[in-house]
Design a protein that fits this description.
Structural class: alpha+beta
CATH architecture: 2-Layer Sandwich
CATH superfamily: HPr-like
Helix content: 25-40%
Number of domains: 1
Number of helices: 3
CATH class: Alpha Beta
Number of strands: 4
CATH topology: Histidine-containing Protein, Chain: A
Oligomer: single chain
Shape: globular
Amino acid sequence: MKSFEYTITDPVGIHARPAGLLVKEIKGYAGSTVTITKGEKSVNALKLMALMQMGIKQGDTVKVAVEGGDEEAVCAAIEAFFKANL
């Protein structure tokens, strides 16, 4: 399992548009499971509604964990997505 932590910089946090883009990005990596954790809550990043219900706002730090095929490359790609969009 590979993981990284990221502090959200988007002024609105993870809302509908970036959450939808994130789900779309992750769907491109079949065979990998991406989990996002904030505090005590963890969700599968493919679950759009669960992701939005976490209430992740600007300044919150989340942990993103990747399990499955080619963890290194998938983790790097997801981290790049976070830096570009969140």
